[in-house]
Design brief:
27% of the residues lie in helices and 25% in strands. It has 255 residues and is α+β, with helices and mostly antiparallel strands. It folds into two domains: 153 residues, 60s Ribosomal Protein L30, Chain: A, CATH 3.30.1330; 71 residues, CofE-like domain (CofE-like fold), CATH 3.90.1660.10. The strands form four sheets. Strands 1-12-2-8-9 form a five-stranded mixed sheet. A three-stranded antiparallel sheet has the order 4-5-6. Strands 3-7 form a two-stranded antiparallel sheet. Helix 1 packs across helix 5 and helix 3 crosses helix 4. It is globular, with a radius of gyration of 19 Å. The protein starts with 9 loop residues before the first strand and ends in a 24-residue tail after the last strand.
Length: 255
């Protein structure tokens, strides 16, 4: 069974990150913030980075001034008092519309994520009339940050790219890993035994999502702290992908 001894887990916010712009060296900015925070980076650390600054650095954004809304976008926006340009971007970023109701669009992205508004967000964009998209390849983004930060820190790290997702059966959003590198994003405990000796039959632990949520406790949504370091994490390490967290279509009871 994978080790779960995380009693001494600590989470340190990386304070002092500047506004991120397309083309910025995000790894260098994170490394500078880690040094300034006195946390530094140590072997085994898990660096959790908000999707939005990854997208900004990679230029995954759209100026709404350049968007010509379709008829569908205009009609939906008028019905629900939304910006038709933003609605159009959501439709373009969707490969499948799951549900459109009460002003909310739930769709599937090209990554396979099913989420509100295809992950498109205009909040904290850094510029007026700018929509931020999901990174095109979040796992690749995580791997590149892991490599660059590892070279700067001189040690092996793990990186999670995190975003806020809602949940079908509960109020409120939580953080999920949309990109992951350097750790097991999910652990399958099926076949293991619980504390009473009973065999587990359906237990899959979304470790990367749990780590993303732990980091969010010190980052928040309005504090301009887009990254944190989770230290003393004792969970399993391997080359993994956040795609492992996606439920296969044949197992999805709600399709």
């Amino acid at each position: 069974m994978a080790s779960t001894d995380n009693a001494s887990l600590t989470v340190v916010p990386l304070i002092g990150m500047p506004e991120v712009h397309p083309g910025d060296d995000l790894a260098a900015l994170l490394w500078s913030a880690a040094q300034s925070s006195a946390a530094g980076l140590e072997a085994g650390d898990v660096v959790v980075v908000a999707q939005k600054i990854v997208s900004k650095a990679e230029g995954a954004r759209v100026s709404l001034a350049s968007v010509e809304p379709s008829r569908m976008a205009r009609e939906w926006a008028e019905a629900w008092n939304h910006d038709p340009r933003l609605v159009e971007v959501v439709l373009r970023e969707s490969v499948r519309i799951v549900k459109m109701a009460r002003g909310l669009i739930v769709s599937e992205t090209r990554h396979g994520f099913i989420c509100a508004n295809a992950g498109v967000d205009a909040s904290n964009s850094g510029e007026e009339d700018m929509a931020i998209l999901l990174p095109r390849e979040p796992d690749r983004s995580a791997e590149q940050l892991r490599d660059s930060l590892g070279r700067l820190a001189g040690c092996d790290l793990a990186v999670i790219v995190a975003d806020s997702f809602g949940r079908p059966w509960r109020q409120g959003v939580t953080q999920v890993a949309v990109g992951s590198a350097g750790l097991a994003p999910i652990v399958d405990l099926r076949g293991e035994r619980d504390a009473d000796g009973r065999t587990l039959h359906g237990t899959l632990i979304a470790l990367a999502d749990q780590l993303a949520d732990a980091a969010d406790l010190v980052c928040g949504k309005s504090s301009r702290i887009p990254a944190a370091v989770v230290r003393n994490y004792r969970g399993p390490r391997r080359e993994g992908s956040a795609k492992e967290l996606l439920r296969p279509p044949e197992e999805d009871l709600f399709r």
